[in-house]
Amino acid sequence: MRHEWLEYVQRLSSDTPVTVALTSATIGSVVTLARITASNARRRKRQRRDTALELALSLEGHARACRTMMHKAVWALTASADYARHGARKGVTIPPFAFPDKLDWQILSRKVVSELREYPAAVYAAREHVEAFREFGEPTDFCWRVEFECAKAAMSALMLARATRPRFGAATWKPGAKDSAMELELSDFIANAEARRRASLPEPKQFAFQQRSSLDGPEARHPNTIG
Question: Whole-prediction pTM value?
């Protein structure tokens, strides 16, 4: 009898208006929270995509500037008169680079931010290295180094931009006719420049005892050897 009475009370309490209202409110809160969470996720995804696009555009723009500076370095190198060559070299250097100030770095992961922030630091170091040759090096060597460092910076910028776009769902880069072969041209130039640099390196110097041994021959090194 007591068991049947408890079941009746439970059925009665579950059908009361208060219980129904509480259940409806709970379900409504869960649905609202799920909608807010989904909306925030879509908004963060859109922000990451827009930020990635801005990053890629700035990197690709710097790659174009570096390629233009490569042509300018060649023109300065081929200037006929010495005074014209000196004047042309004034504006020849690696273009500076900085990401746009309006970027929201907080929506990106620490790994991505670290990879991206390494590029401006590398460009700055290359500029400092090249400027040392402007003051103390030969004009020919200076212009060649500017051209070479610009090619490496442009190639790094294109590779970083190409990796950033698909990582956050940004549109694929569609270069125009002028930039369609830029990556291939840069790759070929860097490979040829590295080959020329290795070919121009002097042979390693030998120590004094090595030079004497090579001049004396094996008999001098082993006087007791016959034949």
Answer: 0.67
